[in-house]
Amino acid sequence: MRLSAPAKINPYLQVLGRRSDGFHDLDTTMLALDLCDEIEIERTQRAGLSLRVEGPAASADIPTDARNLVWKAAQLALDEKHATNTIGDEPGLALTLIKRIPSQAGLGGGSADAAATLIGCNRLLDLGLSNGAMGMRLATLGSDCAFFVGADMTGFARCQGRGELVEPLTPIDAAWNFVVIVPELECPTSVVYSALERTLSGDSDSSSVPFTRFTDSESRIRNQLFNRLEAAAMVAIPQLKVWRSFLNGECAAQGSQGRGAQAAAHSKSSHRKPPTEHFRLSGSGSAFFGVYRHEGQAREALGGILQGARERGLPMRGSWLLHPNGRGASFL
């Protein structure tokens, strides 16, 4: 079986507070994009699991053993099969993960991989789990995992709790364009949340604009983008500030050439961030994304960013012009 596991971004991410279990309550939107890992699952005669990781985004920090979320999701499926007492000989699973989504970038690659694995194993082992049941099991692996099952038909959802409570939203227009830049930086989620704890009391930045459903103008949507974790990520990973300054400068240059005139006019009456800061961090980073209504403008912006990054010696792990995927983890 082959499945697709899409990347996600967070157009809106608010942290509501720390919970008694050590996690944080969130109110966030997640949007799946058409940059996808691929999962291959094969049932074998030999009991147990094996995992191979390959592809352009395979990296040394991605394990090939029980630490990997793909392995953990497959083990959940095998445990479920055991619990039903319908196993004769214990099945084995050979897993191949083809990585295209960079790790530790806030793009949800590991979570999507886990969701795709459980969806595939659910069918392969004839477990009969509903999406809701799979979401509950995936939530034990990671807060973002349930999104890729809960929003399987839309690729867009509001997620609450610690991220496991998924409310699918109407799919957004596939004509929207997202420029995604991943610097040569890794942002461990735990490190960013530790920095958030240190900055919570002194940082009053909060969103008073409802999350966008991408039915408004480009300039208004840019002004509704919000990520409560961004300031903490800048503290935890100071090199991100260099990228923030660079991207702000690139956006300002685009605006000065006339392409940002509409956004600039809107910003005069807005209490939100200026349009020269419309690139936002996704999740806990390190990926930044910008939103464009017109593909030509997005391509021009991406070209300018790539050229500017080369001139300044700013290395990156990847850059893409992406579109809404319109679905979560799914079969190929």
Question: How would you describe this protein?
Answer:
The chain has 332 residues and is an alpha+beta fold. The protein has two domains: 2-170, Ribosomal Protein S5, domain 2 (2-Layer Sandwich); 177-322, GHMP kinase, C-terminal domain (Alpha-Beta Plaits, 2-Layer Sandwich). It has ten helices and twelve strands. Strands 1, 2, 3, 4, 5, 6, 8 and 12 form an eight-stranded mixed beta sheet that branches. The protein has a four-stranded antiparallel beta sheet with strand order 9-10-7-11. The radius of gyration is 20 Å and the shape is globular. It starts with a strand and ends with a strand. The relative contact order is 0.19.
Give the radius of gyration.
Answer: 20 Å
SSE run: EEEHEHHHEEEHHEHHHEEHEE
What summary fits the major beta sheet? 8 strands, mixed
Name given to the CATH architecture of the largest domain: 2-Layer Sandwich
CATH topology of the largest domain: Ribosomal Protein S5, domain 2
- Helix and strand composition category: alpha+beta
Query: How many helices in DSSP terms?
Result: 10
SSE inventory with pairings:
Elements: E1 2-18, E2 24-44, E3 48-54, H1 69-83, E4 92-98, H2 109-124, H3 131-139, H4 147-150, E5 156-160, E6 165-168, E7 177-183, H5 189-199, H6 218-224, E8 226-227, H7 230-236, H8 239-256, H9 261-267, E9 280-281, E10 288-292, H10 295-312, E11 316-322, E12 330-331
Parallel strand pairs: 1-8, 3-4
Antiparallel strand pairs: 1-2, 1-12, 2-4, 2-5, 5-6, 7-10, 7-11, 9-10
Label this structure with key terms:
4-stranded antiparallel β-sheet; Ribosomal Protein S5, domain 2; 34% helix; 8-stranded mixed β-sheet; alpha+beta; 2 domains; Alpha-Beta Plaits; 332 residues
